[in-house]
Structures are given as structure tokens and as C-alpha cells.
Design goal:
With 126 residues, the chain is α/β, with parallel strands linked by helices. It is built from five helices and five strands; from the N terminus they run E-H-E-H-E-H-E-H-E-H. InterPro entries: Asp/hSer_DH_NAD-bd (IPR005106), NAD(P)-bd_dom_sf (IPR036291).
Length: 126
């Protein structure tokens, strides 16, 4: 059955996450449930705060949303984050939420822009 509303959260709110967040916030078929970044002053965190979206510096809080969350997008570029998100889904028995890798985000943004989009990541550890 097709969705008419996608409940989404994003991990990473810097140079890669912010353009994605703008697209998600503009889509009437997306409910943005939360945004996580280590830097509470990251541009995407400020954008989310301004739009009334829950923000956190602990990405585990987004994983704890459970099956209320349809799609959890990881644009950190940090393998340890992706591994921790997968582990959290397994430990809670969440078979509903899909974790989307930054490579898929790069493809989606490139298609939307009509040209290849480069992803930029800081070297912060999580």
C-alpha cells in the first residue's frame, strides 16, 4: 500500500543534511520527526529549530522513535553511526523503519538537481 505521508528523521545537519532538510521540509507528504547532529548550531539544526522540528545531539533518540518512524536518513558519512542505527533497530525488533545511507541521498539530490551532487562531511567522530 503506498504511503501518503512519510515520517522521516535525519542524522547529520551540516553541509549535506541541510539541503536535504530543505527539500524534506518543503514536501507536503513528509512529516519530519527529528534531526540529530553533534553540533547544536549546525545550519540544519538551526533550520529545524526554526521550523519547530525536534532536534537532538544524540542520534540514538531518533532510533528510539521506533515504528512511528518510516525512514531514518543517515548523512553523517560515519560508518559507526550507520552500524549503531542498524544495531538499535535489531535490538528493538523494529522491522518497519528503513535506514537510508548517504549514497542513496546523493543519488536522490543529484536526480532532483539534474546533475551530480557532491557530499561533504566533517571528520567528527560519533
Amino acid at each position: 500500500m503506498p504511503n501518503n505521508l512519510f515520517r522521516v528523521a535525519v542524522v547529520g545537519a551540516g553541509e549535506t543534511g541541510t539541503p536535504l532538510l530543505r527539500k524534506l521540509l518543503a514536501a507536503p507528504f513528509v512529516e519530519l520527526l527529528g534531526v540529530a547532529d553533534l553540533d547544536p548550531d549546525a545550519p540544519g539544526m538551526q533550520l529545524a529549530n526554526h521550523r519547530g522540528v525536534k532536534t537532538t545531539t544524540n542520534f540514538h533518540e531518533l532510533a528510539q522513535l521506533g515504528e512511528r518512524l518510516d525512514v531514518l536518513i543517515d548523512v553523517t558519512g560515519v560508518p559507526a553511526v550507520r552500524d549503531a542505527l542498524r544495531k538499535a533497530m535489531q535490538e528493538t525488533g523494529n522491522h518497519h523503519t528503513v535506514i537510508v545511507h548517504e549514497m542513496v541521498v546523493q543519488l536522490m539530490l543529484s536526480l532532483l538537481n539534474g546533475e551530480l551532487v557532491s557530499l561533504k562531511h566533517d571528520t567528527q567522530d560519533y
